[in-house]
Amino acid sequence: MTKKLILASSSPRRKELLKQVKIPFAFRKQDIDESLINTSDPLEKVQQLSLLKGNVPIEHKDEVILSADTVVSYNQKIFEKPKNKEDAIQMLTALSGDVHEVYTGVMIRSVDNEIVFAERTKVEFWPLTKDEIEWYISTNEPYDKAGAYGIQGIGAMFVKQIIGDYYNVMGLPISRVVRELRKFGVYPEESFIKGNN
């Protein structure tokens, strides 16, 4: 029997990626206090936050919960969503002309199974001018994105190269997530894979 996926995240990018690979899902979210996770290790932080975000109730035995969290790390410092314009300027100025890392932690849970994993992608920025940074911030794109930029939006023009999963930078390493969800009985609509199991 195909299980029902419940997305415990309000991220429009994660919703978009699940729709892109034709995995049907419902949405269930609760407010959490992210300050409960105070580790400075980005790998640990995204995994712990994905666990915290995914702590929503399973209401039916055929449900599978998916949650995720993404941070940017530069020189051992975690960059989350900027709090204000000054914060965004500081982040983008730091990332300019250098390489940073993007970590996304993922938790998948059913009534009888749970996995947590994280993916890392390296991103290199072109050198950015002060005017470029100011203009980009004026678009308001940076404010709901870790590291103050969106690779799938206007921020794409800052990216010189990436090493790893592009979609991980968007907020969900979708190809691995699809493969892990299969183990929980969650498949794309009209999937050819279902018949092989």
UniProtKB/TrEMBL annotation:
<dbReference type="Pfam" id="PF02545">
    <property type="entry name" value="Maf"/>
</dbReference>
<keyword id="KW-0378">Hydrolase</keyword>
<feature type="site" description="Important for substrate specificity">
    <location>
        <position position="152"/>
    </location>
</feature>
<comment type="function">
    <text>Nucleoside triphosphate pyrophosphatase that hydrolyzes dTTP and UTP. May have a dual role in cell division arrest and in preventing the incorporation of modified nucleotides into cellular nucleic acids.</text>
</comment>
<dbReference type="InterPro" id="IPR003697">
    <property type="entry name" value="Maf-like"/>
</dbReference>
<dbReference type="GO" id="GO:0009117">
    <property type="term" value="P:nucleotide metabolic process"/>
</dbReference>
<dbReference type="GO" id="GO:0036218">
    <property type="term" value="F:dTTP diphosphatase activity"/>
</dbReference>
<dbReference type="InterPro" id="IPR029001">
    <property type="entry name" value="ITPase-like_fam"/>
</dbReference>
<dbReference type="GO" id="GO:0036221">
    <property type="term" value="F:UTP diphosphatase activity"/>
</dbReference>
<keyword id="KW-0963">Cytoplasm</keyword>
<dbReference type="GO" id="GO:0005737">
    <property type="term" value="C:cytoplasm"/>
</dbReference>
<comment type="similarity">
    <text>Belongs to the Maf family. YhdE subfamily.</text>
</comment>
<protein>
    <recommendedName>
        <fullName>dTTP/UTP pyrophosphatase</fullName>
        <ecNumber>3.6.1.9</ecNumber>
    </recommendedName>
</protein>
<feature type="site" description="Important for substrate specificity">
    <location>
        <position position="70"/>
    </location>
</feature>
<keyword id="KW-0546">Nucleotide metabolism</keyword>
<feature type="active site" description="Proton acceptor">
    <location>
        <position position="69"/>
    </location>
</feature>
<feature type="site" description="Important for substrate specificity">
    <location>
        <position position="13"/>
    </location>
</feature>
